[in-house]
């Protein structure tokens, strides 16, 4: 008999288990002897009941609503009250998502930021513990986002359940306030006016490629093309300042800032301004002939004042073709005493190489050589030739065509060049011809290229360009494409893309004559530099970029 007066079976086996006859319970016996030698028997009662749903025996003291664990999982839904459908608002113009109440955030598809936004949209999820959440793949055009969520929650006292469910989001398009402002007049808050006083657009074409490569135009609300440059409009001042920093990091520029008061609240002293940033590019471009001031030429390494600009980065890089000496004119030094180019690429004259003798010195891709050239227009008319030194020893061979500046008999209205002619030290060193770059024979009709460039969508303004201006712009663009083909250093700074599949010709070639003409055209372009397919990027779509075939 135990301490409660019940008859116990198997009491002679301390530590054994026995089923009580009078109660639906199990008893566990623990016997021990204390320090005084007394024998003690401890009885632990465990009451068992049957599950009300399936009849399985369960612990009656800790059972959850008289249900076993399996029945609890089947009958209790801890995700009750959590939304299974929701709506996500996205702006189609800027690809941003609305985070209530009025904040717009940028998030890539299936990113952590978008997943966090999806979880915040669900009501009732804060009462549970989130174990895992992940995206389920959906068709990109379905405008649906599915998320798989795993949560934990205590269903009853001492009973914790874990459940997995799916939530479907419908993507609804909603225009954000910033994009709504961009479609109305006079909504910009800052404008960056980029100008360069040169007769061609090749510098802006190169600057456009740098902007596209680094996505520096993503915050603009409008880009307008004007006579001597471009205007970039922004909705916020800090976006314009960020673009100014980019221009300073890629080109030699100087800037000025001005502001205009739009409105003012006299009660709160709050004011609204419009900011204008004027950016001027150095009016010297690649392959221009430059006559340096004599004092400046001595201060930057005692280089000869008559040089060629072979690169324009954050500073001007100049080259003396007679000695291969190079010098760099930094932006602050240039704007301290600005000067213009002596001649630009529109004044280049075609020469034919009669003889060339490479000399020893070489620097990078340049090699010093002595060349005898004649004007292409003088062939068959007279026998006049010119002897000069050039840096193109690695590129020129007898019979090649080369472009250069013809200085003999040319009048320049330039104070720096007049100072050279009057100088006793430099007057005798002025050459008759300065060669700039090799010229390749090309067909009059441009052959479609296997590569292409991206172009920005620009607003041409109220007046469309005239026919002659349009032809000049097309000519400048073609010259820029040729520079990209011929100059590997220039090509490495821009992003080139694979051209789309060429369209089938409407009229097929018929007869041997047409085939022979085609073969002749192919042989004419053999010497033209080609761009390897390894240098080209795959095609992609971008909302703010317009495609233009090269």
Summarize the topology:
Elements: E1 17-19, E2 25-33, E3 39-50, E4 57-59, H1 69-75, E5 85-91, E6 96-99, E7 103-106, H2 112-120, E8 129-136, E9 144-156, E10 159-173, H3 177-182, E11 190-195, H4 202-213, E12 220-226, E13 229-234, H5 237-250, E14 253-265, E15 270-281, E16 289-291, H6 294-299, E17 306-312, E18 316-320, E19 325-329, H7 331-336, E20 349-363, E21 366-375, E22 386-390, E23 401-406, H8 415-422, E24 433-439, E25 451-456, H9 467-486, H10 488-491, E26 497-498, H11 511-524, E27 545-548
Parallel strand pairs: 5-10, 11-15
Antiparallel strand pairs: 1-2, 2-3, 3-4, 5-6, 6-7, 8-9, 9-10, 11-13, 12-13, 14-15, 16-17, 17-18, 18-19, 20-21, 20-23, 21-22, 23-24, 25-26, 25-27
Descriptive account of the structure:
This protein is an alpha+beta fold. It is built from eleven helices and 27 strands. The chain has helices spanning 69-75, 112-120, 177-182, 202-213, 237-250, 294-299, 331-336, 415-422, 467-486, 488-491, 511-524; strands at residues 17-19, 25-33, 39-50, 57-59, 85-91, 96-99, 103-106, 129-136, 144-156, 159-173, 190-195, 220-226, 229-234, 253-265, 270-281, 289-291, 306-312, 316-320, 325-329, 349-363, 366-375, 386-390, 401-406, 433-439, 451-456, 497-498, 545-548. A six-stranded mixed β-sheet has the order 7-6-5-10-9-8, sandwiched between helices. It has a five-stranded mixed β-sheet with strand order 12-13-11-15-14, covered by helices on one side. The chain has a five-stranded antiparallel β-sheet with strand order 22-21-20-23-24, with no helix packed on it. The longest helix has 20 residues, at 467-486.
């Amino acid at each position: 008999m135990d301490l409660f007066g019940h008859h116990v079976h198997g009491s002679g086996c301390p530590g054994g288990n026995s089923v009580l006859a009078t109660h639906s319970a199990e008893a566990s016996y623990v016997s021990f002897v204390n320090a005084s030698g007394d024998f003690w028997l401890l009885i632990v009662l465990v009451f068992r009941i049957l599950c009300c749903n399936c009849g399985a025996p369960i612990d009656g003291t800790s059972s959850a609503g008289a249900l076993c664990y399996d029945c609890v999982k089947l009958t209790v839904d801890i995700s009750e009250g959590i939304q299974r459908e929701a709506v996500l608002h996205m702006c189609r113009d800027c690809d941003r998502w609305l985070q209530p109440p009025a904040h717009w955030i940028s998030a890539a598809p299936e990113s952590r930021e978008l997943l966090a936004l999806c979880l915040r949209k669900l009501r009732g999820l804060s009462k549970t513990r989130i174990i895992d959440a992940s995206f389920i793949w959906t068709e990109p055009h379905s405008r649906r986002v599915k998320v798989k969520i795993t949560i934990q929650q205590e269903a009853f006292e001492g009973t914790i359940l874990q459940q997995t469910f799916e939530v479907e989001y419908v993507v609804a398009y909603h225009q954000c306030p910033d994009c709504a402002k961009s479609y109305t007049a006079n909504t910009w808050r800052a404008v960056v006016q980029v100008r360069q006083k040169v007769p061609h657009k090749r510098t802006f074409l190169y600057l456009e490629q740098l902007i596209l490569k680094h996505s520096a135009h993503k915050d603009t609300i409008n880009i307008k093309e004007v006579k001597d440059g471009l205007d970039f409009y922004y909705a916020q001042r800090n976006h314009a300042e960020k673009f100014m920093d980019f221009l300073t990091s890629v080109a030699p520029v100087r800037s000025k800032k001005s502001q205009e008061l739009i409105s003012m609240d006299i009660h709160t002293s709050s004011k609204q301004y419009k900011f204008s940033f004027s950016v001027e590019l150095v009016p010297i471009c690649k392959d221009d002939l430059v006559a340096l001031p004599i004092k400046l030429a001595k201060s930057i390494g005692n280089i000869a004042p008559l040089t060629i600009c072979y690169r324009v980065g954050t500073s001007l890089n100049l080259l003396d073709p007679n000695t291969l000496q190079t010098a760099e004119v930094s932006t602050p030094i240039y704007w301290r005493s600005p000067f213009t180019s002596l001649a630009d690429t529109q004044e280049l004259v075609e020469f034919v190489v009669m003889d060339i003798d490479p000399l020893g010195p070489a620097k990078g891709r340049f090699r010093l050589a002595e060349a005898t050239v004649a004007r292409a227009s003088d062939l068959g008319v007279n026998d006049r030739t010119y002897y000069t030194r050039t840096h193109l020893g690695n590129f020129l061979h007898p019979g090649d065509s080369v472009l250069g500046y013809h200085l003999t008999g040319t009048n320049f209205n330039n104070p720096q060049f007049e100072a050279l002619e009057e100088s006793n030290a430099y007057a005798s060193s002025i050459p008759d011809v300065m060669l700039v770059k090799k010229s390749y024979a090309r067909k009059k009709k441009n052959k479609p290229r296997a590569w292409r460039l991206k172009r920005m969508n620009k607003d041409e303004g109220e007046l469309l360009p005239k026919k002659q201006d349009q032809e000049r712009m097309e000519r400048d663009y073609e010259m820029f494409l040729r520079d990209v083909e011929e100059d590997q250093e220039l090509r490495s700074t821009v992003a080139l893309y694979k051209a789309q599949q060429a369209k089938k010709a409407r009229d097929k070639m018929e007869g041997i004559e047409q085939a022979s003409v085609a073969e002749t055209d192919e042989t004419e372009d053999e010497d033209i530099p080609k761009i390897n397919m390894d240098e080209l990027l795959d095609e992609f779509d971008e909302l703010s970029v317009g495609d233009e075939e090269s």
